[in-house]
Amino acid sequence: MTVASAPTVTARDEALDMSIKAVPVRHYGQWLTAVVVTVLLGAFVMALAQNENLDYSIVAANLFAGPILRGLVVTFQLTAVAMIGGVLIGVLLAVSKLSSNKVLSAIATGYVWFFRGVPLLVLILIFGNFSLLFDTLGIGIPFTDIMFVEVETNAVMTTFVAAAAALAIHEGAYMAEIVRGGILGVDHGQKEAAAALGMRPGLAMFRIVLPQALRMIIPPTGNQLILLLKSSSLVSVIAGGELMTAVHDIAAVNYRTIEMFFVASFWYLIIVSVLSIGQRFVERRAGRGYNR
Amino acid sequence: MSGKGNMNSTPMVIAQGVRKSFGRHEVLKGIDLEVNNGEVMCFLGPSGSGKSTFLRCVNRLETIDAGRIRVDGSLVGFKERNGRLYDLTEKELARQRSQIGMVFQRFNLFAHMTALENVMEAPRHVRRQPKREVLDRAQDALARVGLSGHEHKYPAQLSGGQQQRVAIARALAMDPKVMLFDEPTSALDPELVGEVLDVMRGLADSGMTMIVVTHEIEFAKEVGDELVFMDGGLVVEKGDPRQVLENPQQERTRRFLRATATV
Fold first, then answer.
1. B111 to chain A: which residues are within 8 Å by CB?
2. Which residues are paired to B86 by β-bridges?
C-alpha cells in the first residue's frame, strides 16, 4: 500500500494520517524494581510496627512534650544565629581572599584551612570547655598586664554562646568557599564595566558583583542551612539545650532511647522539608533578570 | 554630517611611547598619538594588532610598561612629583576613570539592573548626585539613544543593539571628557549594527571626543577625523580616513584593505 495508489485521499485526510500515535517504550524493568522495593519497604515497616522492643505510645507522648518543644526553639535560635554569623563571616572571608590586600587574603586562606580541618564536634567541645583554656577573657594590650575589660569566661561563654560560636565559625569556613565560587562565577566584564564607570573595587563588589553572585550562592547555601540545622544536634555533647539535648535528657530518665530518637528524627524531617520548600522560592526570586 | 570640522586643536588624549607586554609578548611597541578635543579617532587593524589593548590603557584597565598617556592634561594611572612617578590610589584612579566613558564589545550591562538603573548607577553611587536629578538625566540619556519606553527592562529582555545603546547612555550619564569604544558593533547581528552606529554618529556630531576601535570601514570614513591603522603593536599608518582608505601609503595597509574588501 503506497500513497500514490490512493488518489482519493484529500490533503486534509493525509494531514490527519500524519499525526503520531506511536506505542511508547514499555519500561518493564521499572515496574519490576517498583514491586521489589515496595515489598522490601513493606517488610521493614512491618518489622518496625510489630517490634516488641518499641513502644509507640512513648513516641506519641513525647512528640509535643514541653522540653522537646523548648529544645526545638533553641535549635531554631542556634541555627539562625549560627547561619547569620556564618554567612557574614563567609562573605567577609570570600571578599578578603579575593582582594588585592595580601594580608587579608592570607588571613582568609588560613581561616578556611584551619576551621575546615578541625571537626565540628571537636570545635564544639573546645568552645564548651573554654574556661579550661582561659579562665578569664578581656581586652587589653598584648604582652603587658594592662587590661581594659576583663570577665570570667563562664559568665560570657554560656553553652548557647559556645555552641553558636562554634557552629558559626565552622559554617563561615564553608560559606567562604561558596561565596568565593559565586563571585568568581560572575562575568569579569561586569567588574570592568564598574571600574570604567569610576567605581572603586569595594563598591563594585557590593553593588555589582555580589548581587549577581547571589544567584549562584543561594542553592548551596540552602544545603548548608539544612546541614547546619542537623549539625546543631552535635551541640548536645555540651548540653546545648537544643532538641537533641532535650531528647537525651528524657531518654536518660525513661530509658526509651530509640523512641526518643524517633521523636528527634520526626522533628528534623519536618523542619528540613519546610526549609527545602522555602529554598525553592528564594532561588526563583534570586533569578531576577535572568529567567524571563 | 559628521564630527569633522567642529574640533579645536587642544589635545584631549596624548600618548607618548606607550609600551605594553603580556608576559614575553609585547603587544604595544611604542605608540605616539594625539586626539584633539572634539575629534573622532578610529582604529583599524587585524585582531591582535594591539588596538583594543591601547584603548584599554587609556582608562587604565591595562597598565602600561613604558611611556605616558595623558587625558585632558593629567597623567593616566600616575601622579608626577619632583620628577618621580607615584601610582594613583584606588580612589584617585576611580575618579580618573569616572571622567572617561567606555563602551565594550560585549556591552557588559549590569545584568541584575534595569536599563534605567544601569544608567543611574554611577551618577548615584560614584558621584552621589541627588536621585531626582539623576533620574531626569538618565531618562534624557536613554531618550538620546532612542530607548524611551524601555527604561524598566532588564538587559536580557533587550536586543543586542538596544543593550549597546543602553551601555552608551550609561557612559554618557557621567559626562565623560572622552568616550572609548572597543569594537562596539562586533558582537551584534548585522541588522542591528546600524542603530548603534547612528547613535555614535550623533554623538560625534555633538562634539564628543571619541576613540573608536572598529571594523566598520564605512563608519571610519564618514565619521572619523583621523584613522589609525595598527599592526603588530605599531601604528603603521595614520591620517585623514579618506586618504588612508583610498590611497594607503603602506603595503601592509593595502593588504589589509584588500582582504577586508573581498569579504
1. 190, 212, 289-290
2. B79
Sequence-ordered list of residues with C-beta below 8 angstroms from that of B113, at least 6 positions apart, any chain = A289, B121, B154
Taking only residues 44 to 63 of chain B, the set having a beta carbon closer than 8 angstroms to any beta carbon of chain A reads 59, 61
pLDDT in the model for residue A142: 82
Task: State the Cα–Cα distance between residues A203 and A188, nearest whole angstrom.
Answer: 15
Cβ-nearest to A292 among B94, B104, B154: B154
Among A189, A203, A290, whose Cβ lies nearest the Cβ of B108?
A: A189
3-state class (DSSP) for residue A146: coil
Does A292 sit within 8 Å of B157, measured CB to CB?
yes
Q: How far apart are CA B89 and CA B76, in angstroms?
A: 12
Q: What are the 10-residue block averages of pLDDT along chain B, 263 residues in total?
A: 52 94 93 94 93 94 94 92 91 94 95 95 94 94 92 94 95 95 92 93 94 93 94 94 92 90 61
In this structure, are residues A259 and A58 in contact, taking their beta carbons and an 8 Å threshold?
Answer: yes
Q: Quick check: A189 and B104 CB within 8 A? A: yes
- Nearest chain B CA: its distance from A198 CA (Å): 4
Cβ neighbours of residue B162 closer than 8 Å, sequence gap 6 or more: B147, B150
| A117 secondary structure, DSSP code | H
**If pLDDT is split at 50, 70 and 90, which confidence band does A9 have?**
low
* In chain A, beta strands by DSSP E: 136-140, 147-152
Give dist(CA B205, CA B199) in Å, integer: 10
The span from the CA of B207 to the CA of A108, in Å, is: 49
Kindly tell me if the per-residue pLDDT of A292 is higher than 50: no
Distance CA B236, CA B250 (A): 7
Residues of B221-246 as b/e, b for ≥16 C-beta within 10 angstroms? Answer: bbbbbbbbbbbebebbbbeebeebbe
pLDDT for A49: 86
pLDDT surpasses 80 at A11: no
- Rounded Cα distance, B128 and B132, in Å: 12
- A198–B108: do the CB atoms touch at under 8 Å? no
ipTM of the complex: 0.92
Buried b (16+ CB within 10 A) or exposed e, B248-260: beeebbeebbeee
